[in-house]
Amino acid sequence: MSKVRVEHLTKVFGKKSQQALAMVKENKSKNEIVEKTGATVGVYDASFEVNEGEIFVIMGLSGSGKSTLIRLLNRLIEPSSGNIYIDGEDVSKMTKEQLREVRRHKINMVFQNFGLFPQRTILENTEYGLEVRGVAKEERRQRAEQALDNSGLLSFKDQYPNQLSGGMQQRVGLARALANDPEILLMDEAFSALDPLIRREMQDELLELQQRVQKTIIFITHDLNEALRIGDRIALMKDGQIMQIGTGEEILTNPANDFVREFVEDVDRSKVLTAENIMVPALTTNIEIDGPNVALQRMRKEEVSMLLAVDRKRQLKGSLTAESAREARKNELSLKEVIDKNVQKVHKDTLVSEIFNLIYDSPTPLAVVDDNDRLMGVVIRGTVIGALTDIESKDETTHEGVTTNA
Amino acid sequence: MLNFLQQPIPVSDWVTNATDWLTNTFAGLFSVLQTIGQFVMEGMTNGLLLVPPLLMLLIVTAVAYFISGKKWGLTAFTFIGLLFIYNQGLWTALMNTVTLVIISSLVSIIIGVPLGILMAKSEKAQSIITPVLDFMQTMPGFVYLIPAVAFFGIGMVPGVFASVIFALPPTVRMTNLGIRQVPTELVEASDSFGGTGKQKLFKLELPLAKSTIFAGINQTIMLALSMVVIASMIGAPGLGQGVLSAVQRSQVGSGFVNGLALVVLAIIMDRFTQNMNRPKSNKEPKTAKQKKVITGAIIAAIVVLVGGTVISSMLGDKKETVNLAYVEWDTEVASTTVVSEVLRDMGYEVNMTPLDNAIMWEAVANGEADGMVAAWLPGTHGTQYEKFKDKVENLGPNLEGGARLGIVVPSYMDVDSIEDLSDQANKTIVGIEPGAGVVSAAEKTVEEYPNLSDWNLMTSSGGAMTTELANAVKNEKEIVITGWSPHWMFSRYDLKYLEDPKGTMGGEESIHTMVRQGLKDDMPEVYNVLDNFSWELEDIEGMMLEIENGTDPVQAARDWMDAHEEIVNSWKQ
């Protein structure tokens, strides 16, 4: 028995919807349909099931209709046609009162920009769902505080949303939904407004939470990595239509069509890879200015045991290991005297295929330099192996139109 | 089609008929509203006046200090500004204006905020209401005075009615805007938790739109204030009357003082409402104690006002009130002031209401004013008398003969008759208020005399006309004016009436006293005084000149009464 079942769900915005739907069937693009009819197809003929306790991710580029789809599930947007069943009850046929009950007890939502009420404190925000339900003040306080405590925000309960960081605000948004103890959580790009580090943290938190609470979560994102990290199953959307539904592995191994294949490719296949495409920023030390202490300090901070040595003009001079830096410190030598001048250099336009052979022989990363011998970055083994998997599956494309982003 | 273009559409008739229909159909409702409104507002004014001015001044200053977050600028301004108003003797007028503005604003808010909510919630309502608001805001405020008088007569209530129409739109617009500006995501959040429309409105939309709504209310208060000034033309009491009479009598000084008092009031009201809307810098939620104090203060203020209303209505008016209407012409200021002073000596409360000519007649006819001593017959007010003679009681002349209208020029001009006019004075006759009798006569004159066919009649006001005259005489320039006697200008300058062979300006006139029907039974004493009141040309001209030379009208009336005790006593018989 699936928790949520969606059948042939369609939403067209604007007038002339019949004409627009006819054009969708002919596989016309969204732009064409808008130009012709003035109607926008938000979602077309979506059907899927979500099982109890799974995290179901809906993924797609912006404009693919994923936000519309999630709002159709709790009828913030009224569907044009199709049915939504929650626990076997058809939501799309419900009266206002029945729908209100469903929203109050079964299905809650977390928003991209947190959707917190600026004039209410964190606690008042958290208890909002219980408040509109008419739960007595004492009880809702207690439950809201419990939810905040679970997300480690209890001490902020009397603050206002604008006094909190983005990550904290989104935790409040989540706590607000969870305080209601719903069976289904809708998350609309919940982590997209956060910076990457916080984002990872929140993803981990969500997975951890899911271990404990076992909710049915419908999660929307435009980020493939996010989808792969948290999704039990993934649905991929394009122009309002679902292209493929499956586990991350299935989608990566058997893409249903070219669109999916392109979407899941990390690398742009139109490019012939060169050193420049796969290099990462180099960690350097300027031997004309820095001394051994500075170099060691940087190694500690970056958690590496080696730096590339450059001069003022970023000309590559060699490499510096932690041992040689320590030696320099002990014997009061300058860095110039202890660097290893033997560094493997490659030009930025060198093809990846040539780099393979070089990198196996070289203990140090390869330094990538430009025409003036200035250091641009380094190539490390990991990236080459990543690139290698793509190259092998790649047809020999032409060398025309090779672009480099100088 | 051509027919249609040649025939003017009788829009004016339609509007007149519609207004008449409304006036007759809802007469009961209007009079109930008028009674209630009058009672509430007079009570409130009296309540405000019960508080000694200096105490009130200190209270308002203290409120200014706390409301502005303990800034000294506003506090000092409030204190000095109010002290200035008190010092100029405008305190009563100020309290009247405050009452009018507060009631107008309250009514506007009570109507406007729900209307704004309705607009925000319904596209249809928005498309219907928006053009109506545009119409309300761009129609000159004066226009609203006309139906206001038809519905509610003269006094405070029509003033409020006109102010509300004029001042309502900003509150409605800003409420609508504020609610529509609430971010979609928040509205969705409220909906997604199963909040009802009502919960969404009170928990989310109104709190978030509060500051926008307050900005609208602030605008509404400012508009109400400006409209209250205009409404003094139909008898709304307060500072506006001072401004209006200064305009009509061209008194720069007194106009400036009254205007300044209004500026002070406007700035205080503006800053108060803006500061109420200040976002709290430290977002500390109000403690229960603070809430109690605020609620207590509000309740206390209401109790004071209501209590003032009740107390003043209970012990105050043991005195009977006489309402005298008059026009702001120097003749009528003189005679009406004298009559008022006599009645006050007899223990009556007297309200002198300056009105426009036509409205003055209407007020007496409707029984809103008890009487007037300013009816010029047979010529000047002939039309009005025709219209209202069944509804007023004519007590006969209070100034026999000597009164006349005419076209007046300085003696140095070498014209003696209207027929001699050709191209003097830029072919312009300087007139007074458009509604005045002498202006209608002059219009007829311009039509009747062929040599005046291309002349202009430029209307202004009594005061503006005398100022023009003074400038012309000083520079020995040509000027042609609509003049009348008795008037102090004849004592001050060397002027002459032009002969009027066609008699269009009317002959000798008398000034009559008119009272409402039923006055004889209601207030026999007052009726008697009005019936007996009559005096001579030199009496009135002497008093007018004294007023013109800067004596306060009341003082001038007192001086005259002291000098003519016998005459005054004969009126009281």
Q: Can you describe what's shown?
A:
The complex is a heterodimer of chains A (406) and B (573). Chain A has 406 residues and is of the alpha/beta class. Chain A has 17 helices and 16 strands. Chain A has helices spanning 17-25, 30-37, 66-73, 96-105, 122-126, 128-133, 137-150, 166-179, 196-213, 224-230, 248-253, 258-264, 275-278, 292-302, 322-331, 352-361, 381-393, and strands spanning 4-13, 40-50, 55-60, 81-86, 89-90, 107-110, 184-188, 216-221, 233-238, 241-246, 284-286, 306-310, 316-321, 345-347, 366-369, 375-379. Chain A has a six-stranded mixed sheet with strand order 6-7-8-3-9-10, sandwiched between helices. A four-stranded antiparallel sheet of chain A has the order 2-1-4-5, sandwiched between helices. A three-stranded mixed sheet of chain A has the order 11-12-13. The N and C termini of chain A lie far apart (56 Å). With 573 residues, chain B is α/β, with parallel strands linked by helices. Helix content of chain B is 65%, strand content 11%. Chain B has 25 helices and nine strands. The relative contact order of chain B is 0.09. The mean pLDDT of chain B is 85. Chain A binds chain B through residues 71, 74, 76, 100-104, 107-109, 111-113, 115-119, 121, 128-129, 131-133, 158, 160, 163, 180, 186, and chain B through 183, 185-186, 188-196, 199, 203-204, 207-208, 283, 285. Chain B: In the N-terminal section; belongs to the binding-protein-dependent transport system permease family. In the C-terminal section; belongs to the OsmX family. Chain B: It comes from Candidatus Enterococcus lowellii. Chain B: Keywords: Cell membrane, Membrane, Transmembrane, Transmembrane helix, Transport.
